[in-house]
Amino acid sequence: MSFPDQINDELQRLRAAGGRGTLAADAPNGRLECDLAGVDAFGCSIDSFTFHTGGLQGATLEKLKKIGEELTRRVTYLLEPIAIIELDAEGVTVQMRSSPPSQEDGVTSYYELTINQNGLKLRRYQSQSGQPRQATPSNFTHETLRRLARDVSAVIP
Amino acid sequence: MALRIDRDRTRFKQIVRGKIRQNLRKYITHGEMIGRKGKDLVSIPVPALDVPHFRYGKNGKGGVAQGEGEVGQPIARGGDADGDGTGQAGSDPGQHILEVDVSFDDLATMLAEELELPNIEPKGKANIVQDKSRYNSIRRVGPESLRHFKRTYKEALKRQISEKSYNFVDPRVVPFREDRRYRSWSTIQQPETNAVIVYMMDVSGSMTDEQKSIVRTEAFWIDTWLKSQYDGVERRYIIHDAMAKEVDENTFYHTRESGGTRISSAYQVCADLLDKHFPFEEWNIYCFQFSDGDNWGEDNRRALQMLREKLLPRCNLFCYGQVESPYGSGEYLRSLAEAFFGANHDKLVLSDIPDKEGIYDSIKTFLSKGK
Fold first, then answer.
1. Is the entire prediction scored with pTM above 0.90?
2. What integer pLDDT is reported at residue A39 of this predicted model?
3. Which of A66, A80, A87, A107 is most worth mutating to test chain B (most B CB atoms within 10 A of its CB)?
């Protein structure tokens, strides 16, 4: 079964099971795991989107940066565009975020995507001035989730 | 007796100071003065400084006088009071903004008055006694370069008069060797308190130009205040992302890196710098750190440990200002507050700077300790 089909099946399984749980699907170069907070016929709420891969073991920061740049080019369909914000040479990690973040009623919302030698993780956060940031679910249509998973898998060797 | 012009000048200065003080919050917040900084003076634009002047009324158009008249006849009606508002715009220049030069000392005084800042009490051990020379006496011997010509001439004149060799018709004075007088100095011991300010700034990818501009404005006012309190203020600048280095002032304000944020790296460079150049027994040490607080999670523990063990014991004051990033995601301030809450760390001052408007309160928070 193809990677997108697996995602479809998992979404239907979780919908039947009440909407909460972990979506898992195997890609040729890694494994996708999403913690779902809810699913319906059209979309889903995702607490975290993680792509585990062995393909980045030993990857240099420069290589991870290139993956980040490729994701910036491809992933243009989320609520905000994402861009590389920081590169951590010590931890060999690339941090990407929404650029610019969304601002609404004094609340800042943004995606944060980290790429390291174990894979890639995406979460969404909200923050208010003077308050610590809070993780918040990302809402995707089924098509968007599949497209995101496909794009992530495509940029990772 | 003071001349009238002196009184007027003093009065003018008072008015200008009043205007500056009135708008000081605006100047502090918007950093208008920083670009105008000279060596000892700073030019401040003072808008709408009203100088008292006479205004002509409408007396030229009629008036009251003696003469014939009927009961009820209106008298001395002025000219056309109300017009239709038509007419062309004037071609005269508008009112210009006056620029006034204010010394840094004056500025510091105004800042202190406005923010009600206490004077700093220097660290007891830091009082360095320095020998200074003052040329305040005269001797009979000395190098020719220090010869006091007037005194020498006087001595020669006195000698010639007493010897009756002075000729009033041909008043020539020739000093002999014993007439010569030389300037001499005495050494006085002058206590001097030295201070070093170490600025640390996060220049990682998440720090925007706007945030750095806030840091720049705040640093200007901190500098102004500390310079007014100490004779010799040394300033050192450290920038960091995941790595830290000491840089010059220009680099400090204009560098942007893309690295991750590891605050401990700046603390390490700062501790090394203090070790090498500024022994804490001799120097008043002020550290000001600015970051968006978006430290990479695992670095917090190391940074807090270094702060507790290596920096706080040496500093008069360690100030951390968290400039809010567009993501509002900085959590280092909270980590500091949690780590040092309840502990006896009155040297640590924390300030949250949400935007430019927050600079004023932040400066007050930092400098109101009087340390």
1. no
2. 93
3. A87
